[in-house]
Specification:
alpha/beta; L-arginine/glycine Amidinotransferase, Chain A; 3-stranded mixed β-sheet; 15 strands; about 20% helix; binds citrulline
Length: about 260
């Protein structure tokens, strides 16, 4: 069960966030703020507290706080972002992490290693880590050394078609996973009960399990039905403005 979450308020420069889909247009800042506020309420309704960090105007993508750290029951790691323009974001998460973890429980990914939290999917005591355009082998090696020393297992999963691992595969507990695109047939996930997300709802694969409830992005009816049929209570949050810059539900928080 999760007790805590950390989020960061979107900044007005969110309009300049990195995107692979410029055809969707720029996010509308005011709407992003409204959607972010609704996201916070959805998190709270699942029984967690929410630490809300202030906007960082110099970093357009800084509301995607999932990428700057990976948190677990026993330890935490501060990442080293593969996206150059986002690189300075990590220093602003450290004080927040230190409120929950002692100095010796915190590790750091260092150059030439890169790793982004969106590439890390926790399944019990196992971490699957995507080898992506943002996360390299050296980053995963450092990650595995650190989390390995706390008894966690780390498995690398190469990916090619999407930004991050969790863009296309998300664990919703009870041995169930939402999978889309290149992850549908990946042998790494053979032992799990796969909920296959149709191609036209691929963005909807990025759902988050929160203490028995699954938060599903608004507007993905096939995903929603599949998650409900799997026995979960569903809450919807509209993420249309974050989608325009490749962000989804998981990217917007750290959950631990
Ligand atoms: C980026 O390209 O870094 C942002 N525009 C989107 C980050 C999404 N984060 C995530 O999937 N964890």
């Amino acid at each position: 069960m999760f007790k805590h979450t950390i989020v960061r308020t979107p900044c007005s420069k969110i309009t300049d966030g990195i995107t692979s889909a410029p055809e969707l247009g720029q996010p509308i800042y005011e709407k992003a703020l409204e959607q972010h506020a609704a996201y916070i309420e959805a998190l709270k309704s699942t029984g967690v507290d929410v630490m809300v960090l202030p906007a960082l105007e110099e970093y357009p993508d800084s509301c995607f706080v999932e990428d700057v750290a990976v948190l677990s029951e026993k330890c935490a790691i501060i990442t080293n972002l593969g996206a150059g323009s986002r690189n300075g974001e990590t220093e602003f998460i450290i004080p927040a992490i230190k409120e929950f973890y002692s100095e010796d429980q915190i590790g750091y990914i260092k150059e030439p290693g890169t790793l982004e939290g969106g590439d890390v999917m926790k399944v019990g005591d196992t971490f699957y880590v995507g080898v992506s355009a943002r996360t390299n082998e050296e980053g995963i090696k450092q990650f595995a050394e650190f989390f390995g020393s706390y008894g966690y297992e780390v498995k690398a999963v190469p990916l090619s078609d999407v930004l991050h691992l969790k863009t296309g595969v998300n664990y919703i507990e009870n041995n169930k996973m939402l999978v889309s695109g290149e992850f549908i047939d990946k042998p790494d996930f053979d032992g799990y009960e796969k909920i296959v997300v149709p191609e036209d709802e691929a963005y909807g694969a990025n759902c988050i399990w929160m203490n028995g409830t699954v938060i599903v992005p608004l507007g993905y009816p096939a995903v929603q039905k599949a998650v409900e049929d799997a026995g979960y209570k569903v809450i919807n949050v509209d993420t249309s403005e974050f989608r325009k810059i490749d962000g989804g539900l998981s990217c917007l928080s750290l959950r631990f």
